[in-house]
Amino acid sequence: MSKARELVELLEKYSEAYYQGNALISDESFDALEDELRRIDPSNPYFNKNRETAKGYGTKHPHIYQFVGSIEKIHSVEESSLLSIASKALPVNLSAKLDGTSMVVYYENGKLVHALTRGDGNYGLDVTQHYEAIISKYNLAIPTNFTGAIRGEVVFSNANWLKFKEIHPEAKMARNSGTGLINQKTVQPEASLLDYVAYDVLASSIAFKDVFQFLEEMGFTVAPNVYIYHEVEERELEVLFKKWSDIYPLDGIVIRVDSLAPSEKGLYFLTKRQEAFKFQAETKACRVTGITWGLGRTGKLVPVIQIEPTELSGAVVTNVTGHNAQTIYRLSIGVGSIITVRRSGEVIPYLDEVLTPTEPQLPTTCPHCNEPLSWTSTMVDLVCNNENCSGQQYKKMENYILTMCKDIKGIGEAFIEGFITYFNATDVKGLLTSINNYAGEEITTLGAANNKIAREVISVLANKTQNPADFLQALGIKFLGTSFASELSASVHTKQLFEALYSKDERLAREVVLKILPNRYALADSIVSNLPLISAILEVIYSNGQSFNFNENSSPAVAYKRYYAVTGSVSKPRKEFEAELLEKGWVMTDTISKAEILINNDTTSNSSKNLKARQAGKPILSEQQFREMYL
User: Fold this and answer.
1) Which has the closest alpha carbon to 426: 387, 452, 483, 377?
2) Pairing label, strands 101-108, 301-312
3) Residue 54: what pLDDT?
4) Residues facing 219 on adjacent strands
5) Residue 199 to residue 150: CA distance in whole angstroms
6) Distance separating alpha carbons of residues 194 and 219, to the nearest angstrom
7) Residue pLDDT, tens place only, 573-618
8) Which one, of 396, 398, 433, lies nearest residue 412 by Cα?
């Protein structure tokens, strides 16, 4: 079968399901499939077909006032023909573009006639009983002289989606789950968790000035919106999108200018100029060519999905993260699968949806030590349980170097491989032993530039005084990340903790961890289970005269340095602010990867530092939040 024919069959399958009111994939994935077909076969007859293929499904009615279509999409402020005209004389409305199922409801003299899905824009499916169940929780007051049609979106609020997931933990996408509910022949109890959010009036027997105000006066929940009276920058749209996304799932912002005009039939119709602003996030369909499995320092195997070279947001993508073994198994991803991949700006591409599943081939043995693999208790990951696995030990050494030497530039995969090979190390203990025995000779195998980096790395790892927080994090122990390592190291009990770790005293180690971090039982168990590893490394450090900078005479906050980044204005001049925090043990850095926390009084903005912090999983706190939590 040709690739074009395969794509046509997929599109027809998803198109039929969509017009039946049972969407199987997202709009972005559907568009990506069409774009791929258009690229390889732009004259394909598919593009000339009427997409309403769901013959005989349910009861259909015509949309009597107008064709119910979709909105033209734009992806930048420069493409907009409306944003630039906003002024006091002509305000422009911005509203949330909800990611749900479109529904038009028809009233005559204040009485509900029927509710229809969008369908093909000319005919929609009758879902009146579902609409009545959804709005039963509202206090609607439809005027008795209102005849017309209202358009809205059936959607889970974020809060109600969590409630639905408690009932149906297998549910994956809010949009598809909502569509599935209104597609049932009988109304399901969970339909009460859905909202009908109104955003348009197709026709009305009553004149009105503001469409959203008119809908609210009738008792409808309306799409979040705002009027603007000035030219808008993309950052303002991003702030609104983030704010509204906390309430409902969105897939953009609608930009519109309305005017009301009467018709010969005695009805008023909105004349709309509108655009759907979609943030730059490109989605494309591509074929899987293979899956490789990398080994993490905790023994978990991490799948990487290989795809045919695909250009996304200006970059050619060949690899996509597969997350974990459960994802590969549950979604049936294998060679030949067609998937959609999404990438926004410089963000790492990720798997969006699986359009064509195939039989997955999961590994049964570790690619490094060839020992049998087993599933974790949660059935999420495949794991190698061999503590002496060479692959795991290598990852632990890599993590130790990267964490302890995080301020050194130029450390990459190739450097680490050459560095470990030069010292002929098989585990962290052996690496540190070799470094402490290093006589200062030239490391010619690494080259001149890397030789200089190597000397810096050796200097840090052999330093006579170590940072306890960095050391704990560098161990690569499950649950022991930056935050917990910092708290364990800032305590007046830190020295006692290290004594317990060195002496392999399981009872005392657990007791001290829980004294510093109450109720963190999983972390305590993880540390105790790694006592042989920790003790072996501490043995090398202590035997070579190295120590940790415990300062029992200082308050916990200043027992060691903690790094923060800051952007935007703060409550006092920046130098005074830095000096105050430095007294408390906090050092400012411009490097987000080094910082533990980013301080920004605009925590929801999409500034470059905020974006980097989110990508790195760093907390973004306002100055007040930071002071309340740490000072």
Assistant:
1) 387
2) unpaired
3) 40
4) none
5) 8
6) 16
7) 888 888 888 777 788 888 787 788 889 888 777 777 888 887 777 8
8) 398
Structure tokens at 356: 């064509």
List the structure tokens of 274. Answer: 């509108």
CA 198 to chain centre: 28
* First-to-final CA distance of the chain: 66
Give the amino acid at 114.
H
Residues 612, 613, 619, CA angle at the centre, nearest 5°?
170
CB-based contacts of 43, cutoff 8 Å, min separation 6 = none
Quick check: 102 and 117 in contact, CB under 8 A? yes
**pLDDT, tens digit, 9 for 90 and up, residues 463-485:** 888 888 889 988 888 778 777 88
Is 590 strand, coil or helix? coil
Separation between Cα atoms, residue 201 and residue 209, nearest integer Å: 12
Q: If you ran DSSP here, which 8-state letter would residue 45 be given?
A: G
**Distance from C-alpha of 440 to C-alpha of 400, rounded to nearest angstrom:** 21
Longest pairwise C-alpha distance within the chain: 96
Give the number of other CB atoms < 10 A from CB of residue 26: 19
* φ and ψ of 113, to 5 deg: -95, -60
Residue 475 to residue 502: CA distance in whole angstroms:
14
- Other beta carbons within 10 angstroms of residue 293's beta carbon come to 18
- The C-alpha atoms of residue 69 and residue 67 are separated, in whole angstroms, by 6
The Cα 485–Cα 252 span in angstroms is: 39
Euclidean distance between CA atoms 423 and 401, whole angstroms: 13
CA 65 to chain centre: 40
CB of 596 within 8 A of CB of 566? no
DSSP 3-state assignment of 288? strand
Question: Which residues of the chain have a pLDDT value below 50?
Answer: 21, 50-57, 345-346, 553-560
Q: Which residues contact 529 (CB under 8 A, 6 or more apart)?
A: none
Task: Identify the CA nearest to 562 among candidates 544, 548, 532, 583.
Answer: 583
CA dist., res. 141 & res. 626, Å (int) = 47
Sign of CA dihedral 44, 47, 49, 55: positive
Q: Which two tokens stand for residue 117?
A: 């899905």
Helix/strand/coil for 507: helix
What is the torsional sign of CA 450, 452, 453, 454?
positive
The pTM assigned to this predicted structure is: 0.48
Distance CA 584, CA 112 (A): 65
- Residues 52 and 48: their CA atoms lie apart, in Å, by 12
Query: What is the helix, strand, coil percentage profile of the chain, to 5?
Result: 40, 25, 40
CA distances from 412 to 135, 409, 425, 598 (A): 57, 9, 18, 25
Which helix H or strand E contains 563, and what residues bound it? strand 562-566
Helix (H, G, I), strand (E, B) or coil at 561: coil
208 close to 570: Cβ distance less than 8 angstroms: no
Q: Any alpha helices (H) in 93-157, and if so which ranges?
A: 128-135
